[in-house]
Design goal:
This protein has helices at residues 14-25, 40-44, 47-63, 79-89, 96-104, 164-169, 184-195, 214-227, 323-341, 358-361, 380-385, 401-406, 439-447, 452-455, 468-476, and strands spanning 3-10, 30-34, 108-111, 113-118, 121-125, 131-142, 146-148, 176-180, 199-204, 230-233, 237-242, 250-254, 259-262, 264-267, 271-273, 298-300, 306-312, 364-367, 372-377, 390-396, 413-419, 424-432. It is of the alpha/beta class and 481 residues long. It has 3 domains: 3-39 and 95-147 and 272-358, FAD/NAD(P)-binding domain (3-Layer(bba) Sandwich); 157-269, FAD/NAD(P)-binding domain (3-Layer(bba) Sandwich); 371-476, 2-Layer Sandwich (Enolase-like, domain 1). The strands form 5 sheets. Strands 1, 2, 3, 4, 5, 6, 16 and 17 form an 8-stranded mixed β-sheet that branches. The protein has a 5-stranded antiparallel β-sheet with strand order 18-19-22-21-20, sandwiched between helices. α3 (47-63) packs across α7 and α7 packs parallel to α8 (214-227). The N and C termini lie far apart (73 Å).
Length: 481
């Protein structure tokens, strides 16, 4: 015997919760299957704890640039209090609050690990070995997320390196930390741990934040170096040697002939989809790969055709590995499931209510380093690769009045990438203190394809950092009649 629901969601993180919630709001019954904590990676090991670790250092850095306030700061960060606040933000890794929300949203929960046994069918094994069989009347949605990717560097596994989970949940700060990687996790954790007193060495094969505009990674690397971190770019770790009795514990031998000694190693070299243990072979899909989807989030079979009853959202799709983008996908998936199940119209046209079109051209992202990096849409290089005839406009944020008020010596750069044929923005990047709060205006401009001529009438308030919009437009040139 099996229990049936209209919709079964595998994965109880923020993305899975949103799929189930939208399906229930659409008139269906739903259950979430979760093997760990309801609330998922973002709540306990990623977005929330990482930003909690970063916030205290960011505030202190800002205060020290404002005369009057700077004189009131006489000490360093209280590391114990920072970690305690982080623990509070994660609810001490308990999901009681999330369970209350599930009840209020009329979503059932089955704890355990789910495996496909056939179309619309799952076997869920709980930690105590109890097995529950579930069947879906209409759809199953996979929202299992992703896992850290560990390179096969000789000696690395024996060193028992941290992953992002360890870095965001640590209860003590190591004296020294070697971070392998140059992406968002590496940059953010380098910023956090440097502020918390660790001697940080960041080692990356390529550039820092290489998927952003070049000046973004350059400014973050400069800030990390100024804060006391050692940033090594364009080098690789060739081997790791571990001596538990030696000071530092681990020696990383690099491709340039140098060596780094560290108490702990954090590997932040990318993510892989969490699909290898779902029994996907039972429904004719490869395991260990991202689940490719159409824009309504239906999973595509090996031939590229949508599987009518199977959906996926979040990291597991490989579309945009960001919580907010995954939640966007989840809302679309839940709405599409409900609409199809109830025979209602489904709009999958570009920018339609059941189409995740923004994944292709308007993805926003904030990297909470010092300085922050906020971007949406395409970089200049990406736009060029797509054959868009562009004009790139840069402006120093420190020149606007709002930056003068914000802090002394404010440094930052804004860039907009304009599609010259359509005269709309296709990409915007801000680098500077607190620029994350500027990003949604840019996201609206890119998503809505607001013409340059109309943007001139969106008057920024004075004196705020938002005045940079006016300066960018002035640098571009005022339209003529």
């Amino acid at each position: 015997m099996s229990t049936s629901y209209d919709v079964i969601v595998i994965g109880g993180g923020a993305i899975g919760e949103n799929v189930a919630d939208r399906a229930v709001q659409g008139g269906l019954s739903a259950v979430i299957v979760e093997a760990e904590l309801v609330g998922g990676e973002c709540s306990y090991w990623a977005c929330m704890p990482s930003k909690a670790l970063l916030r205290s250092g960011s505030v202190l850095e800002t205060v020290r640039t404002v005369p009057g306030a700077a004189e009131a700061v006489t000490g360093k960060l209280d590391v114990e209090k920072v970690l305690a606040r982080r623990n509070t933000v994660t609810s001490n890794w308990k999901d009681d609050g999330q369970l209350e929300w599930l009840d209020s949203a009329h979503i059932d929960l089955v704890r355990g690990h789910a495996v496909f046994t056939g179309p619309k069918a799952l076997k869920v094994t709980a930690a105590d070995g109890t097995v529950t069989e579930l069947a879906a009347n209409h759809a199953i949605a996979v929202s299992t997320g992703s896992l850290p990717q560990l390179p096969d560097t000789p000696g690395l596994a024996e060193a028992q390196p941290w992953t992002s989970r360890d870095a965001t949940s640590a209860q003590t700060i190591p004296a020294s930390l070697a971070i392998i990687g140059g992406g968002v996790v590496a940059a953010e954790m380098a910023t956090a741990y440097t502020s918390l007193g660790a001697q940080v060495t960041l080692i990356a094969r390529g550039k820092l934040l290489g998927n952003q505009e070049p000046f973004a990674g350059e400014k973050v690397a400069e800030a990390l170096t100024k804060a006391g971190a050692d940033v090594k770019l364009g080098v690789a770790v060739e081997r790791v040697e571990t001596d538990a009795a030696a000071a530092g514990g681990h020696t990383l031998l690099l491709s340039d002939g140098s060596a780094v000694v560290a108490e702990k190693i954090l590997v932040a070299t990318g993510r892989v989809p969490r699909t290898s243990d779902l029994g996907l072979e039972a429904i004719g899909l490869p395991t260990g790969e991202y689940l490719k989807t159409d824009d309504s989030l239906r999973v595509l079979d090996p031939g590229g055709n949508p599987i009518e009853w199977l959906y996926a959202a979040g990291d597991v799709t490989g579309r945009a590995l960001l919580t907010h983008q995954g939640k966007y996908q989840a809302r679309i998936a839940g709405d599409a499931i409900a609409a199809r199940a109830l025979g209602k119209p489904v709009d999958t046209s570009p920018w339609g209510v059941h189409s995740a079109t923004a994944d292709h051209a308007a993805v926003p992202q904030v990297t909470f380093t010092t300085p922050e990096v906020a971007s949406v849409g395409l970089t200049a290089a990406e736009a060029e690769k797509r054959g868009i005839r562009t004009r790139v406009v840069d402006y120093e944020i420190g020149w606007v009045a709002g930056a003068t008020i914000h802090s002394d010596g404010y440094e930052g750069t804004a860039r907009m990438v304009v599609d010259e044929d359509r005269r709309v923005l296709v990409g915007v990047t801000f680098v500077g203190a607190d620029v994350g709060e500027l990003l949604h205006s840019a996201t609206i401009a890119v998503t809505a394809e607001v013409p340059i001529e109309r943007l001139w009438h969106a008057v920024p308030s004075y004196p705020t950092l938002s005045e940079v919009w006016l300066r960018l437009l002035e640098a571009y040139g005022r339209p003529t009649a």
